[in-house]
Amino acid sequence: MKASNVEMGSLIVRIGLGFIFFMHGLQKFQGGIDGTVGFFESLGIPGFMAYVVALVELLGGISMILGLGTRVLSIAFIIILIVATFTVSWGGGFSGNELHLALGIMAAHLLVAGSRMAALDSRFGSRKAA
């Protein structure tokens, strides 16, 4: 079966978004998560949320690339982006938020359209009971 341009586009968005979130999660752990914990606390966010966000970004990014739970992860990524926009970059005006907006639009696209091409979800979902 020949893939449509829309399916190919969704695959590109899924892999790109997954990679970006994976790298953000990895960065939070590479320098020691304590710095991220302190940063979260300085914003009034409980420190343990740094672990939650970093794990969602790291493991969610890998899962997104593989096409596992794309729609659910899109919701999680949108929530992270909304919180980041209002706690970290809101004061910077539009120029401080365009990356969050672009990533949010990518996540919203995947939430609505999904991404079945080369996705492990579609392999599991296509199995029929014997």
What report would you give on this structure?
This protein is mainly alpha-helical and 130 residues long. The chain has one domain (5-115). The protein has helices spanning 5-30, 33-42, 48-66, 70-89, 98-113, 120-125. Helix 1 packs across helix 5 (98-113) and helix 2 (33-42) packs across helix 3 (48-66).
- Main pleated sheet: none
How far apart, in Å, are the first and last alpha carbons?
A: 24 Å
Percentage of residues in helical conformation: over 70%
| Silhouette | globular
Distinct helical segment count: 6
Relative strand content: under 5%
Number of domains: 1
Summarize this entry quickly.
This protein has about 130 residues and is an all-alpha fold.
Notable features of this structure?
130 residues, mainly alpha, 0% strand, globular, disordered C terminus
SSE topology:
Elements lengths: L4 H26 L2 H10 L5 H19 L3 H20 L8 H16 L6 H6 L5
Helix pairs in contact: 1-3, 1-5, 2-3, 3-4, 4-5
